[in-house]
Amino acid sequence: MEERSTKILKAIVAFLLAIATTIIAFTGWYTYKNGIWEDKLSKVNLGMDLEGARHLRFILDETVTNGVEVYVDEEGNYKGNVISNTTTDNTVSIDALTEESKEEIPYKTEKRDIKANDESAITRENFELTKKIIQKRINKENNFEYNIRVDDLNKTIEIEVPNDDDLVSEIQSDVVGKGEIVVTDTDTGVILMDNSDIKSAKATIGTSQSDTSKVQFYLSLTLNKEGKEKFHDMSIKYKTHEHSEDEEHEEEAQKSISVAVDGQVVCQTTFADEMNGDIFNVFFGSPVDQTDQETYLAFVNYSAKVANAINSGVLPLQLVQESDTFIVSNTKTPSILATVAICALMVVVSFVYFLIKYKSRGLVAFIVGVGYISTTVVLIRLIESDVVVTFNSLLAGLALVAINFMFIKKLYKNSENSNSAFFNTLVNTYIIIIPLIVIAVVFTLYNNILLSSVGKILFWGILIHALYSIIITRTMYITKK
């Protein structure tokens, strides 16, 4: 009688735990803090096949700027824009330069019509290269589901991403920004250094020299051999003037360099010392107070994005966005309902099977199984924030249900009721699913969010199953005859 009461009590406990974890798994785990209810579990991210997607269409930039005065070398290669008369006080026009300064410019000038995309660059190869560079940028910055393709007929690049405004904004900047960095003479506009002189770029944060309570953001450029030589020459030519108070000297204009990313000047500076290394630190803006979170994070994101764009390569084609539309999921409602119906049917069939086959013990086993699935969902939502729920993810979940079903069935077939029999059954079950364990590990490490989501669900699901079986299943004495 006492044994029966204990069984009933444990069945009630198992049932309540299963109900509690199921509610938490599908509604959330909320805590009250500072007047706000906050869900400790990560958001359930539905894949584009279930939720739909934003369809971004990019076309070639057809902008043409007529009559631009530029520098060209003897072969006619572009070497920078001549500074016009409408520049700021910090720059002067070519006509206003001294004869000595003009003689320092080794290029002739001519007027050209500057196209955003030269006709010779509009090729199939460059479209594919543009696509690869965009993929590099996206994969480096984020890990999310996306599709990208080149439309040869219409000469466009189309990208599908989840319906998230912040994400769409990131994609737009990755596609529209070419990733060009140029160092020019501030007064003349002559290009002194560009992407071809840079091996790699890294976003860095350091303590401000002018105010140690603040931080300074800068781009650390690692230069190649040619870049190192140019860097050394620049540090001599554009060295900061230093004069003592007693020293008599002829007033000489201070020369400086300007660093621009995609046409936007981010830094204008001189050199305090002669530079012989291969690291060129480009400062971004003024020092930032770390307590100003909005400005701080803006600089963190911007500097990282610039470094990523430079490392990924310059886009051979300049693109502009033509459209941004929401595409409804290709998965029809009947398909979704059919999938849900199949899952529900499997649950009902397993419940009936255990109830008929093992009666009261079968009921306890079913409740424990539901608790396992719910516990898995809770812990995955707690541990992982980038798991995407797709049909493949649902199949991974069904695989976990099948593993638990197979384990319980094997356990009930064992006539011996002991800890050793329990662990032998558990080990034998995992020997059978070794191929699935290998797939789970490989997919988890894969740099594709769809595959990694499947891998993480399987990996954590199998690990949780082992712990859950030892702690809960074994404790509930479901092997007791």
Structure characteristics:
single chain; 481 residues; alpha+beta; Gyrase A, domain 2; 2 domains; four-stranded antiparallel beta sheet; 18 strands
Stretches where pLDDT is under 50 for at least 5 consecutive residues are 85-94
The main sheet orders its strands as 8-9-4-17
**CATH-defined fold name of the largest domain:** Gyrase A, domain 2
The CATH architecture of the largest domain: 2-Layer Sandwich
Helix coverage percent: 40-55%
Task: Name the helix and strand elements from N-terminus to C-terminus, one letter apiece.
Answer: HEEEHEEEHEHEEHEEEEHEEEHEHEHHHH
The dominant shape is elongated
**Overall number of strands:** 18
Main CATH class of the largest domain: Alpha Beta
Query: How many alpha or pi helices?
Result: 12
